[in-house]
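Posting for a labmate who doesn't have an account.
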Amino acid sequence: MRFGLSYHHQLPKPWADGDEERLFNEALEQIELADRVGLDYAWATEHHFLEEYSHSGAPEVILAAASQRTKNIRLGHGIVQLPGAVNPPARIAERIATLDLISGGRVEFGTGQGSSQLELGAFNVERSTKREHWREALDVVVRMMTETPFTGHKGDFFDIPPRNVVPKPKQKAHPPLWLACSARDTIENAARLGLGALSFSFASPEQSKEWVDSYYSIIESDECRPAGRVVNPNFAVVLPLMCHEDGETALDRGLEGAHFFSYSLMHYFVFGKHQPGVTDIWSEFQATKEMLGFTRELPQPGSAPTAPGAEQMLEQITALRRGIGTPAQITELLKEYEAAGVDQVIFSVQIGRNRHEHITESLELFAREVLPQFTEGREEREAQKAARLEVAVKEALARVETPDKDVSDFVIDNELALLSNDS
């Protein structure tokens, strides 16, 4: 099993001058430490306008900075929003390829549709068609990274002429592709398209096993028709992390941050009423957290939710505590995920008001006492998995249909274009 960090760059109010600068620099220090102690991935999400919950509007900048401070850790977009009004396909292909080159081929290309109305509405993306928009964009971006030249596209959402999109990525045919998943149907869709599944849902080991089994059964079936030119059979789950030798201290340091992560997510995606620049999510969280069950003690069975969306949050409360504890407790938990077939556990650490020094201390302790129990023999197990899937992957790639287009006669007369512009 592999391990990573996930960054939303949470910044609860009140804000002071320099807070965002400090937040970004602390994240880079944490990623540098993660690289040094042997973690495998650093993921940066993309969100826009989601105050307090995510100040991560330019993850490509964070990942580029991280690429120059690290040597081995994989750098993941978790995810890039693919609707063209948010990110035009050519700009995505150019950025992914450039990052792949300057990092020495360490990019993971996670994709998604976007979901918050606060974001989609600002970019005039229709919720009713966002999945189709994502699917068409993914195909275009893959072709831009692999075709020389890109042979053009006419579809429902994009009309793009032939161009040679440069640069091309270092990894061939392209960096590994992933899909953000929060439900079983999306996970199964990822498998049908040969994409890694980034499960951002705090799933239990038991739930994860059901999803993993379903995911790999599709990967190995004739339902798998890859969206890319390579298949990325990987299943990842996300958990908060705060590791300390004393379990009560771990709760002191990490539990409220995990609770705020869940509350702020629900604010934007479930029940919140948001006034840009005015709403204070942290204050609302403080005022309602006891009522909603965000307490140090687990809610008693049968606790009645008292606000819209509270029932859904109560289901997450136990999950939010799973990665907060002693090395022994976290090791036991991770062995359950390993037994369930999970390929990667991604930890959210910079959440709520978690302190930088506590995060780095937690990462160092995790790397020293937990990580070694999962690295011995890992390469051999991964090789066995690759051998088991080899035939299925080859058969899936044989189902990929590539466009048969001739652009030999496509010539742009720059001289005539210049004269036209001058006139």
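Reply:
Got it, the structure tokens are right above this. The chain has one domain: 2-289+320-398.
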